[in-house]
Amino acid sequence: AIWHAIFSLVLTANGEYACVISSACAADYRPIDEACSCYVCRTYSRAYLYTIAGRNNTAGQLLTYHNIAHQ
Q: What is the tens place of the pLDDT at every residue in 26-49?
């Protein structure tokens, strides 16, 4: 889960990985996974995570939280 979050890959309900650092997420205001009820999915959009990715380790921590909650 942590390794995947480092590379901005997150687990989704269908078992696939989604990348939130893709420019396609820049204007995507949906949660990482609409079927997930973790804190990150309830609070942050893909666009927000895209915006903070690479600026500091906060995005990685949030993605790790989602991945762990999702398992």
A: 899 999 889 999 999 999 998 998
